[in-house]
Amino acid sequence: MNIIFTVCNRTNLTNALALGSSVMQFPGYIFYLCWVDTGMISNLPNNIKLLPVADLAIPEWQQMVDTYYDFELLPACRPWFAKHLVTVHQNEDTFTFLAPTVFVFNALDRVFNSHSDLQLTPHISSPLSKSSDLDDKRILNIGMFHSGSWILRKNEESLKFLDWWAIRTVDRAKFDLCNGMCLDQLWLNFALVRIKNADQISCSGWHYGLHSVLNHKLAFSNGQYYVDGKDLISVDFAGLDTFDPIWSDHQPLISKSIHFKNLHTDYKKRLSMFQPYQPQEPTPAYGKIPEIKKDRLLRKNIAGKLRSVTRFIDRF
Predict the structure, then answer these.
(1) What backbone torsions phi and psi does residue 300 show, to the nearest 5 degrees?
(2) Three-state SS string across the chain, please?
(3) Average pLDDT, whole number, for the chain?
């Protein structure tokens, strides 16, 4: 059996449940919903296992709660949940993390590489097409690999890397690009030099999302979706429904693909099926709560246009 897990709080609980339902369409997987919040979720589907963060006994946990915003705390906990699951499942050797905003369309087996101790998802695998919404510098700021999906196999090197990574997310997983931090994922840049058998996933149908729109063609034919002619395996809808510190700024990229927009429309309908599981209190129990204005992107765009006007005036 392969262990698939995600990490969420009540903000993205419906996303995590939709992910779990999509994973469990296919046999051979055990799915864990790793819960960074308080309160038990009742009447979960039988195929979804709940793992509360309290079960992990993370060192300096209160420091993390006091330091991080809730959207920073979730990725900071990811390697810690992985460490726990590796310990619990002594007889399993494949552990796959998927962000709660991912949805699976085809079995993951075609991506698994038994010769790799850590499989990473590159943000881009070819020169980035020109766009005003996303450029090479922004990719460089956030790291070469997407922490929304990775596959780990138990090996001395991969487990050492997991320990090294987890220790650093205790106090170095803020979203603070000016000080060299980008949640959990900048640490993944070191994986290829610390793990001899680390590898990049090259399948174009894997983890399609806002980071893929410019370089990969999504098509629909005979009731199936394809990316560059290959079966669509998974999609990450990060930045489209709830605030994501990285991808919410790139929402306009969805307009580059009518098929991506259609996928997102269908996805939102799926999310509504899991609304009954949503706690009445909307505020997560752990982490600081930021004030995120709904019109932040509109305000940002207007500010950018005003700066362009003032720069033009200053030149003359």
Answers:
(1) -65, -45
(2) CEEEEEEECHHHHHHHHHHHHHHCCCCCEEEEEEECCCCCCCCCCCCEEEEEHHHCCCCCHHHHHHHCEHHHHHHHHHHHHHHHHHHHCCCCCEEEEECCCEEECCCHHHCCCCCCCEEEEECCCCCCCCCCCCCHHHHHHHCCEEEEEEEEECCHHHHHHHHHHHHHHCCCCCEEHHHCEECEHHHHHHHHHHCCCEEECCCCCCCECCCCCCCCCEEEECCEEEECCEECCEEECCCCCCCCCCCHHHHHHHHHCHHHHHHHHHHHHHHHCCHHHCCCCCCCCCCECCCCCCCHHHHHHHHHHHHHHHHHHHHC
(3) 92
Q: Where are the domains of the chain?
A: 2-315
Residue 256, number of CB atoms within 10 A of its CB: 15
CA dihedral 160, 166, 168, 171 (to 10 degrees): -160
Q: Which amino acid, 95?
A: F
The CATH class of 2-315 is: alpha beta
Residues 181-222: pLDDT tens digits? 999 999 999 999 999 999 999 999 999 999 999 999 999 999
